[in-house]
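dumping this here before i forget
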Amino acid sequence: MEQETRRAELFSDGFFAIVITILVLEIKVPEEKGSHLWEGLAAQWPHYAAYVVSFLVIGVMWVNHHTIFSHLKKVNRTLLFLNLMVLMVVAVIPWTTAVLAEHLKDPEAAKIAAILYSAWTVVYAVAFMGFWWYITHVGHLFHDRVDRTGARATRLRFGLGSIAYPVTLLISFFSAPLALAAHGVIALYYAANQIPIPVIDDDGDGVSGNGGAPGNDGTAGTAGETGPEADARGAAAPSARTA
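structure:
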């Protein structure tokens, strides 16, 4: 079973690596020549901004995803399909990023693009929430040292964390640049703050680690630190946060 878990994580890691790399392919080489090249480079600022924000968003997603898998001892068929659903949603992010970057300087079109971008992060949050809720519901997929009751208790906070994404959707109706900035702030927040997956120490007490794989001292190690993207997705759920 350990090997099956590892295979699922390796597949997911490769998937995240490809998706996050695709982001930069949308930044084209300017057509301007000579000294006008500076102008061409400057004109692409929307692509740079969208790239940085989406890189952070996907990066936090990957860290949270890795954190959750570091606490699993096995996977089942249902979890594999839920994982595929999460990856399917992640695969669309480069496209929504490209749409937003391409239209960010057009006030009217920018709002529509921002709504699309933000709405898709809501879809991702829902997908990851379902992923985390299923894991905590069945419980038996966790390593034995994970405090299953404590892990289930993170679901509420994880769900509340997902409220941030609908807020960005609301902002998108008024300002696309502000919505993009909000996504960046949320990604940075989730990268620095997380809900650790509770593990049981040698005395049988529940101890909250910092999101990594369970350590020998009964606390979560630092290997899998995260941030929605993460509340419940994070170590526990943040890794679940989605972002």
